[in-house]
Amino acid sequence: MLQSGDAVVLYSVVFGLVLLGTRSPVWSCGLAISVYLFLAVFKFPQVPDSRARQVLSRGTGVASGLGRASSIAHRGGGHDAPENTIAAIRQASENGAEGVELDLEFSSDGVPILMHDDTVDRTTNGSGPLGQISFSELSKLDAAAKHRLREKFAGERIPTLEEAVEECIKLQLSIYFDVKGHPDQAAVALGDLYRKHPVLYNSSIVCSFEPKVIYRMRQTDPEVVTALTHRPWSMSRRGDGTPHFASPWKHQWMTLLDILLDWAHHHLLWKLCGVSAFLIQKDFVSPDYVQYWAKRGVQVVAWTVNKDVEKQYYQEVLQVNYITDSLVEDCEPHY
């Protein structure tokens, strides 16, 4: 069931909007009841809290009451080593990370690989969209070509998802699988991995900005721990706060959509998907925000925390996990 506060807000909003549009209390009640029945039938329950805590508190002592948050290396720690590579995973482990966040994408021939972008241009010495490059071609690229430490990591290649997972298991790192899209394809690939490596049920979490990805993953395997990822105002503004659109009317329209999307994330989508964590851009995290989610059995994870003073705040005050580009030094903000 929805938390009582969420239920009141949700059904009041539905009732009010329909009443405003139709001036019919009957239609308003009918639609509010329909929303309630939809959630009752189609929502997924959260995985047991004890197992979610085991995943999210892996190696930190938080579950035992010691109060230490996890530091998760963003894309394996893209400041310290070439992002989404085996070298990054090893470097993150060496630097003391409790886990790594890894981006799932696919080659043109359907091989699950680690890559953030839908092209290879930004991080490799190649060019072109992933959808047009086979894995055999991808394996020839230098994944360190554009990195600031390219000489140290020269020749590092793009790994398959399975290679990365096996390395993380060996190093006892937790994994945050960040799924960019392809809900059906990703659910199949991840489902196969969980069956092959059951340890993942207690050491990994599947995350996405796209609720349909998480819902499809729960359909495929409801035992997988999942999270929604969100940045408020992402449709109308860039990460640094500047507007996406020069047109005032388009900016206002996108702002309205942002408000609706944010409301849906906080009152509807999290419950529909049955998530155990909520990954939120760091500037929106506060003690009250952490408590809001804690009351719903959801843990907050902040991204991307790149300053030492911020890390201390998350470790000592908020005591929530954070994702960072570097385990060894301050680096530029990442939105």
From TrEMBL:
Which molecular function terms from Gene Ontology are attached?
glycerophosphodiester phosphodiesterase activity
One Pfam family matching this protein: GDPD
The region annotated as signal peptide is: none
Where in the numbering of this chain does the GP-PDE domain appear? 69-335
Example of a GO cellular component annotation carried by this entry: plasma membrane
> Which CDD domains has this protein been placed in?
GDPD_GDE1 (cd08573)
Looking at the UniProt entry, the stretches that span the membrane are none
Per the record, the GO terms for biological process are:
ethanolamine metabolic process; N-acylethanolamine metabolic process; phospholipid metabolic process
The record, for PANTHER family, names:
GLYCEROPHOSPHODIESTER PHOSPHODIESTERASE 1
The UniProt entry's sequence similarity note says: Belongs to the glycerophosphoryl diester phosphodiesterase family.
**Protein name per the record:** GP-PDE domain-containing protein
